[in-house]
Amino acid sequence: MTMTRRTFLAAGLGLAAAGRAGGAGGEGPLPMATRPIPRSGERLPVIGLGTWRTFDVGPDEAERAPRREVLRRFLAGGGRAIDSSPMYGAAEEVVGDLLAGLPPDLRSRAFLATKVWTSGRAAGEAQMAESLRKLRAPRVDLMQVHNLLDWREHLATLRAWKAQGRIRYAGVTHYAAGALDELEAVVRREGIDFVQLPYSAARREAEARLLPAAAETGTAVLVMRPFEEGDLFRAVRGRPLPAWAGELGASTWSEVFLKFILGHPAVTAVIPATANPEHVLENLRAGRGPLPDAALRRRMARELRF
Fold first, then answer.
1. Is residue 73 a contact partner of residue 26, using CB atoms and an 8 Å limit?
2. pTM for the whole thing?
């Protein structure tokens, strides 16, 4: 995504937006929007951070330095939710190591989310304990069943761990459109705290049933893959920002794509993944200022024509 996004940003617009957003930490005159986690009322900033592919690196300082800066800017700029998984290679350990090196006031802001991605109760408990070790955390805020793998077994464990205070929230995830029906069934029947799902301006299947189910059941929603792994940037190559982008205070395509998602009231937060400190500032700006109402979202979908 690094190269594709750079292709589309207009330098003047990017510099102007950076000035509005404040300094290197991303602080700006407008606060980051937050939304409540329905089952607790705790408010979560609407822009989070994914780590798939982007944080799977080794111990080399040259590789880790930009990721440390991503975390610093993300937390200083008002972000909190950092999402990872054992599936993501070294990402959990890298996040844990880099957070440990940040000032305590930043480190304490992190809302840590990870996943269990194995079969069987014993294996799941062992993997979750290893995730806590790698993240250097006595507990995590959110533990999710990754891609619904053995979800019945793991949800029982998650409920026990939640009662013990080892996790704060329990959830389920899946990346595939073909799994949305099963995700909906779990959301409606199991009383989970979070569901993580794919949703973007080009991939809107979740609007039909899953997002309404989350709203009806009081389930928080994390949105993964908001840029379709860079496909959205490639689709708008050479296209100027639409006039209505100004109505949203958006000066980059990343802000447009993220604000479209956040315009859906069922979405709690979106978790774009990046290892680029400049991109994390762009993403954070999408959480400030106006969001599209239903009418503008329909116009956006119509005019973007993915």
1. yes
2. 0.90
User: In CATH, what class is 2-14+33-304?
Assistant: alpha beta
Residues 214-269 have pLDDT tens digits of: 999 999 999 999 999 999 999 999 999 999 999 999 999 999 999 999 999 999 99
Residue with tokens 């069943």: 145
Q: Percent helix, strand, coil in the chain (nearest 5)? A: 50, 15, 35
Distance separating alpha carbons of residues 204 and 192, to the nearest angstrom: 22
Distance CA 138, CA 272 (A): 26
Q: Which of 286, 241, 245, 249 is nearest to 26 (CA)?
A: 286
Q: Which of the 8 DSSP states describes residue 47?
A: B
Which of helix, strand or coil describes residue 167? Answer: strand
> Rounded to an integer, what distance in angstroms lies between the CA atom of residue 54 and that of residue 42?
28
